[in-house]
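Hi team,

Below is the intake form for 3-oxoacyl-ACP synthase from Caballeronia pedi. Please confirm the fields before the structure is written into the shared record.

FORM ID: S-0412
PROTEIN: 3-oxoacyl-ACP synthase
ORGANISM: Caballeronia pedi
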Amino acid sequence: MLQFIEFERHRTLEDEPVLNPLLLTHFTATSCAGRGLDATLAALSTGRSGLAPCDFEGAALDTYAGRVAGVEGAPVRADLAEFDCRNNRLAQLAMTQDGFDERVREAIARYGAGRVGVFMGTSTAGILETELAYQRRDAQTGALPATFKYATTHNPYSLAAFVRAYFALRGPAMSVSSACSSGAKVFGSARRMLETGLIDAAVVGGVDTLCLTTLYGFNSLELLAPGPCRPFDVKRDGISIGEAAAFGLLERDRPDHADDDAIRLLGIGESSDAYHMSSPHPDGLGARMAMEQALASAGLDARDIGYVNLHGTATPSNDAAESRALTSLFERVPCSSTKGATGHTLGAAGALEAVIAALALKHQMIPAGANTSEPDPALGLDYVLTTRQTPLHAVLSNSFGFGGTNCSLVFGRKGAGSA
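The structure came back. Fields below:
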């Protein structure tokens, strides 16, 4: 297996073409750290965490969670009532921040409703609706309530279908459910359709919300931290589950686009090492493959990257494996995991952290790793504890999921790597 992985890594890098950059023309994010970009940026700049003792209904667990306030009181638009569930409510709440929905409608006017695609990442979608439905089963027959609509709530595709219906789009739509890499892998799916000319713009994103299946599932794996998670800390002891919705609008880099400071998607790396159902390869081989491929497709070297947003779940083994992968490629690159601020938002994490990477580029800053106070010296990282202002030309964001589904994204400004 190791020989095969090594062979596949070299074969992939030799054949990897340099991507045509795509414009990330607009983006937004909502999590426990805040609604919209201003609130998210404020939390990252100050190292503030949105994690709090878990008070999710029905979850009697001694842990912290990243809950977005107000989702319960924000039903989806009346004409889309069949999609109403916590996951789609959070999606709608996020799409209305930062004028994102307005920018999407501008793209629709520019290209046509059939030329804008939808690519959404999620792990559990509206599974909470199924949990609630089972609590309301008929006592005699065990039948689920007639009001329960699996296809438009629990079904992973319900998220993409909801976003497509919200904007009245007629282009292709798909959901990616590859565990914690879902919200990053949608960028690859969108890029492929843009490159083939099937679409002219893509709404990409990730949404995952709190539910008992997730909370108790990770508790059964003994992965939940009793307090706020502490990524890469010498005393790290588990993850904090969060919920989030993050979106981006991808378009081709038009010749008439003169803004060299615009954020561009430069590179994408995807791998599947399948080392174990839930644990990463101890040396991070799959993670390294994804990062190498992302750099190669961006036409960049490791030294061109000014910041790495780490996957950083705050479990002992995951953080150690990612550190080994990172230090085998980079020499003391500044890095941090922002999950200390947002929690691990699972299928939304890749999209949320892509937005955070874009914010880092836009504001020329490296966000601090909230809650981490003593980085583990054995990991050998330049782990950032206080937000730094520094020139950034290109940044990398990592998302690694169960089963070895890995994805790394490179974002940058025009001319990244030539400075």
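SUMMARY LINE: The chain has one domain: 19-412.

Thanks, M.
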